[in-house]
Amino acid sequence: MNHRQQRGVTLVELLVSIVIVSIAASGVLGVLSMTTAASADPMIRHQAAAIAEAYLEEIMLKPVSDPDGIDGEAARADYDDLDDYDGLLDAGARDQFGTPIARLADYDVAVSVVPSSGLPSVPAADALRIDVIVTHSTDINFVLSGYRTRL
Hints:
Layout: H1 11-37, H2 41-60, E1 89-91, E2 107-115, E3 127-136, E4 140-149
Antiparallel strand pairs: 1-2, 2-3, 3-4
């Protein structure tokens, strides 16, 4: 007698394969979702670095000593020496005249200008350290520092 073998998939085998494929697909989609959620971070960090560089360059171009003898100008457009920037807090990045830049409103900037004893062969009274701190709501905190001397 000839017995034919039946070929096919039982209902149990079909269900098991569907479950395995579903688990694999959800794992892959989870990794893709996590990667996509973090993909903007490098761009935000790069923008924070560019903002910090722009602020530091603006500050470093100013003289160490106050040219007009008036310390602590009120408006950023009037800042004429390094000390004027100490304590600057900008909610949202601004240009050199203090005008807000709408597309950079999510970045906050803080500046400190303090005497520094970290430079060899330069007295602390003649060395200033400028720290520019740029923060973003995504827990990015970028710090850029520079030094100027009176010598």
